[in-house]
């Protein structure tokens, strides 16, 4: 080794747990495709159930992991100073060490590691929430039953909680301290290295003493089993094995070189994306609230085509209610006739007095609610898809710049999910043809079971009708 140069050098590094196989690129893209297929095929029944069920269970797993990530964040230890050999800014070592620390003789070491699963989980749960909430607000096909409505409510609550946890975790990610690796100047490291497990004797005292003792003793340096000394390898994560932790050194052409350029773009773009998400959330919650309130809206459907066809009747209905409530007068008065006769003088107060009546105010509020529902529905159908597309593009760009993937699409851990969905579709398609494939005895048995179920449903309906009748009778008797 060259003894005339510095004993060791320090360079910045990214320490991270790579995205887990289940959240890598192929499963994520399959999840996006399932969401799109659920929206397109929501009128087909069994096909939409397969797509929606597969997407919902996948997103549910991601939401549960977001809870664990937020709840299990370990407290970072205090930073410790490490003195390093001073290097000028024009040193030739920069060609071998792209993130070399120069023009300083002290750095602060605070071991930490990024959990890139947090980015993938955020991509899944927020995208799922941006799709599941509008589906409950718009689709009458998927929510025409109480059980389905309840299921959508529970799932949206789970997705909302997962989205909040993932966004909180992502916000804390930006506070992660800079990581360093220490290497011999004559032995440049690989771009990416992994950890085989941290040994306690690699850090006998302070970080400063540990680094200097390691590079002053070639025997001790050989015991670490790596080219460089990475303090971040002594961190741990509850959901990961220590051997999956990686230390990565971006080259000068990378977006994450030194982190400044990439993170500035990311933080700036967050404002627009989060604003769209909040707007989409508000619009769909308002629609969902009006949908389940005991209010009979004049908007005939949540489908734009139906609204456009009925636009004339909607407009006439709104106008007639305001007109009738304005000219409604108490018995014995002739305000409408007097206003219609120009020769009869009518005071200004007489003309505006109907605007302050309770009847007109109620009519105005109903018309205002219908107009709000109409505009909310139209803007929701425009904003929600655009928000989902913009968010998916943004978060995938973010994940792409996080670092190298753990697996390639050719590996079984990636394409196995696509095969599973395909087999599920084949099974569901065969089951939909069960009556065509069934024998005569199977059909007779199915008819008997359906008749028994029908009798049970009729008994339950009669019991509920009797209960409602008794309750109504009791209320009348009390009044």
From TrEMBL:
Residues 440-467 form a coiled coil. The chain crosses the membrane at residues 120-138, 150-171, 272-293, 367-395, 415-433. Keywords: Coiled coil, Membrane, Transmembrane, Transmembrane helix. This is Uncharacterized protein. It comes from Penicillium malachiteum.
